[in-house]
Design brief:
- The strands form two sheets. The chain has a five-stranded mixed beta sheet with strand order 3-4-7-5-6.
- It has 17 helices and seven strands.
- A hairpin with a 2-residue loop joins strand 3 and strand 4.
- It folds into three domains: 79 residues, no CATH class; 124 residues, no CATH class; 106 residues, Arc Repressor Mutant, subunit A.
- Helix 2 runs parallel beside helix 4 and helix 5 packs parallel to helix 8.
- By secondary structure, the protein is of the alpha+beta class.
């Protein structure tokens, strides 16, 4: 039995989700976790069409369906439903590739949360996560992306524990880890299972038999700094996450214009030229020009729009000098950047940043 969602309910969405790629580190972590139990890699990989050689190399990956089959094999062979917690508690930020490095590079837990909400579905694809506020508390409301059937409880146990593990990793050096463990509360809508007792001391407080699957925490925790913060590393990680998002298996459902926007990511201050962009979209430059014209756009207009998008995002980080931002969005001369920014917004970058710092105070903004 596979953990991948049944394609009967929503065939197209199920197929796209099952084909989505995950880092090979996920499979390697599972194999490593079960190695002491004398479960061979061959048995855990049965039915996936994969071999250990698949996981060598920087670009190694596997599909969601293949990873789901590995989880199903592990549960069947180990007979241990507590594997949900074991797998989550063994997670490290670096296990999640560029997203993990991006989270580590954020300035605060709040900034990391916003980054995670944008990209986490590329790493934890079986669930949907939404943020809402209730007074001084925030809640991560989780639901199934598609029905998980008999693996539903496993999925929610793993998801909640994994989110807490990642947050604790971010907070460890900043001194908020203990506060996070004490103040976070997990709600599950199923009865307390026998295996939970083994992990009670390693998890935040968990309440079973609730009305939903939620993660509650004080809004004040979002202000805690992250000791490994680095704005340039964060920018590089976001570039890679954006590219990955654009190249995901379900990107065909996006419009060509939206796919082009997501693939227009600057590297060292340089955006892809028309031919490079066309190659990334797997079409000819001539066809791309024609399609953009039909959509009421063009390459230069698209690049200008993307520069504005990136400039606004970078200006929201007060640690980045404006001169540095100008270079990151392709302007060698800061004065030219200021003129372009005034054309986009009617304000200079400095004035816009001051206004944004006065109004951007809601932690639930994404």
């Amino acid at each position: 039995m596979s953990l991948a969602p049944s394609p009967r309910a929503e065939p197209r969405r199920a197929a796209a989700l099952a084909g989505q790629r995950l880092p090979a580190s996920y499979a390697l972590r599972l194999l490593s976790l079960l190695a002491p139990r004398e479960l061979s890699a061959e048995r855990l990989l049965a039915g996936t069409g994969l071999g250990l050689e698949t996981f060598s190399g920087r670009e190694a990956s596997l599909s969601v369906a293949q990873y789901g089959q590995m989880i199903a094999n592990a549960l069947r062979l180990s007979g241990d439903p507590g594997l949900s917690y074991e797998l989550a508690l063994s997670s490290r930020l670096t296990s999640h590739g560029f997203l993990g490095y991006g989270l580590m590079s954020c300035a605060t837990l709040g900034e990391a949360l916003r980054l995670g909400l944008r990209y986490l579905h590329t790493r934890l694809p079986f669930h949907q996560i939404e943020l809402r506020r209730d007074g001084a508390r925030l809640c991560l409301e989780t639901s199934e992306a598609l029905p998980l059937g008999p693996f539903r409880q496993f999925g929610f146990e793993h998801l909640m524990a994994e989110l807490c593990q990642l947050a604790t990793g971010l907070a460890e050096d900043g001194g908020a880890a203990d506060a996070l463990r004490l103040q976070v509360e997990i709600h599950h809508d199923f009865p307390e299972p026998p295996h939970y007792a083994r992990y009670r001391q390693r998890l935040p407080r968990v309440r079973h038999g609730q009305t939903g699957n939620r993660l509650w925490f004080p809004a004040a925790l979002l202000d805690w700094p992250i000791a490994t913060a680095d704005p340039l590393s964060s920018e590089l990680a976001v570039e890679q996450c954006e590219r990955e998002l654009a190249l995901r298996g379900d990107s065909g459902r996006l419009s060509l214009l939206e796919r082009a926007r997501r693939l227009m990511v600057a590297e060292q201050g340089r955006y892809p030229e028309l031919g490079e962009l066309a190659a990334r979209l797997a079409i000819s430059p001539r066809h791309l020009k024609r399609r953009l014209r039909v959509l009421g756009s063009g390459y230069l207009q698209l690049r200008d729009e993307v520069r504005r998008r990136d400039a606004l995002r970078l200006l929201a980080d007060p640690r980045l000098p404006i001169e540095r931002i100008a270079g990151l969005v392709g302007y060698d001369n800061p004065a030219n950047f200021t003129r372009a920014f005034r054309r986009w917004t009617g304000q200079t970058p400095r004035v816009w940043r001051l206004g944004a710092s006065d109004t951007n105070t809601a932690p639930e903004d994404k």
